[in-house]
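Researcher: Sequence recovery benchmark, item below. Answer with residues only.
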């Protein structure tokens, strides 16, 4: 969805995380409140406070419903027209955890906990349809590869003693519906902070404290790597819809890299940058910040500062 080019970027105010709707017609930002920004109208449709300390969100495939998860692990659903509370899915019994995603059909929510649970819940009843616990592990992220209908879960084993380091981070890869992992993937010994699957499902971007890397999934080989500068506001790596670019949040900026070589092609200076997302058609980019974010056309991000 295009914006009015003469009007310039849309200011999105403060946000810790943001998400585009499936059609790109609106953007959700999370801070103290949940705010829906209408792209065509260039302004807020609503600001609501359905849950304290929102940390993650997901939008169902129809764009009519939004799942909000907070830092305590509580999950609620609101409608995208007015922001009204629809259902309370989980009171946070499993505690804090990873991001949350809708299934392709929109009937289920998938997330992980920092106590090692991978959980699938019904969006209608809130009932747990599947759950597997990985003791002494932290589930950092869940990701979905539409091209291969595969789910990826990032596991971080916890140290079990003061004199022995924790085991290496790894990925479990699942088919839908989730029953058991099809395979387990170890890429290196570094602590993996986040990861993202390419749109075609053939490559994996991995972020550690010091590096951004791309791996080829057919043979698990390293394609390219470049230094990464952590900024203290979270670890983020996002593929463009065409798979030709990676956007990352780093210290005081959002940095854009060409793929597969990871040559930095652009940087947007942004104080306390926290998140970045592409619109589904790749024409727009939303930048989150603990201070003040913005929504702008991708074509305007053409030169490094």
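Model:
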């Amino acid at each position: 969805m295009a914006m009015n080019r003469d009007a310039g970027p849309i200011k999105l105010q403060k946000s810790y995380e943001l998400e585009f709707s499936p059609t790109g017609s609106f953007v959700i930002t999370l801070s103290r409140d949940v705010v829906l920004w209408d792209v065509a109208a260039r302004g807020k449709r609503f600001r609501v406070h359905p849950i304290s300390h929102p940390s993650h969100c997901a939008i169902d495939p129809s764009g009519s419903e939004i799942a909000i998860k907070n830092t305590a692990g509580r999950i609620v659903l609101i409608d995208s027209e007015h922001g009204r509370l629809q259902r309370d899915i989980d009171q946070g019994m499993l505690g804090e955890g990873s991001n949350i995603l809708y299934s392709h059909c929109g009937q289920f929510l998938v997330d992980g906990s920092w106590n090692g649970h991978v959980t699938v819940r019904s969006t209608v009843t809130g009932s747990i349809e599947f759950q597997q616990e990985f003791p002494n592990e932290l589930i950092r992220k869940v990701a979905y590869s539409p091209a291969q209908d595969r789910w990826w879960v990032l596991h971080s084993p916890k140290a079990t003693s003061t004199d022995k380091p924790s085991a290496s981070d790894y990925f479990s890869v699942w088919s839908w519906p989730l029953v058991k992992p099809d395979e387990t993937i170890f890429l290196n010994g570094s602590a993996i902070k986040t990861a993202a699957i390419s749109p075609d499902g053939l490559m994996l971007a991995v972020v550690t404290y010091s590096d951004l890397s791309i791996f080829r999934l057919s043979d698990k080989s390293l394609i390219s790597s470049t230094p990464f500068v952590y900024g203290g506001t979270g670890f983020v790596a996002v593929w463009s819809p065409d798979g030709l670019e990676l956007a990352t949040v780093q210290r005081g900026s959002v940095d854009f890299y060409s793929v597969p070589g990871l040559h930095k092609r652009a940087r947007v200076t942004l104080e306390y940058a926290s998140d970045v997302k592409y619109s589904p058609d790749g024409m727009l980019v939303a930048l989150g910040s603990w201070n003040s974010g913005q929504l702008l056309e991708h074509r305007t991000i053409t030169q490094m500062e």
